[in-house]
Amino acid sequence: MLALKHCNKLGYFEAFPLKNNLIQYIEALPYLKKIAIPFYDEFVYKSCFEPALEKAVYALLKRSYKGPAVLRYYMNRIIGHSEKKKIYKVVQA
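^ that's the sequence the OP posted. Answer follows.
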């Protein structure tokens, strides 16, 4: 729904009953799975939406940035594999 909103095409799809309440839908999500975080992260990074929607997406990301799986994901994305092992041991200590 966010990708369609970004392209201004969300109104063309009647399959989404909550398209007019997108902010409430996002606020109702407890967290994102690890695989979805980069997709949502990109929207926040590029400031694609109006402030209220962007704030809701940012809050969802903040709820999702928990646990070692997300930590490993960002460590893989930012630094190399050899350094990751050193840092991960320090973080877990």
